[in-house]
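Q: Here's a chain of 89 amino acids. Please give me its 3D structure as tokens.
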Amino acid sequence: MARYFFDFFDGTVMRDPHGIECAAPEDIRHEAMKALPEIAKGAIPQDGDKQAFTVSVRNERNLTVYTATLTFAGVWMGENVPLPEEAFD
């Protein structure tokens, strides 16, 4: 099995120094899909309504073989839009 490195970007870069072994391309996709929500759940900003989380997967030769992005976008709707200080009460 080949080793792949899963680097994460959310405005900062978190490079994967260890990687994991994957047997098939579908395993790479599955690992990225599993990791993105875990990374995002504690990192969505409290002071904004937009954030993107990207995983970029490198092979052992340091070539990017797969990328995926999870995006959070919040939009206030309707007439009763709270003022900024009320938004998180």
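Q: Can you summarize the key feature?
A: Residues 2-74 form one domain.
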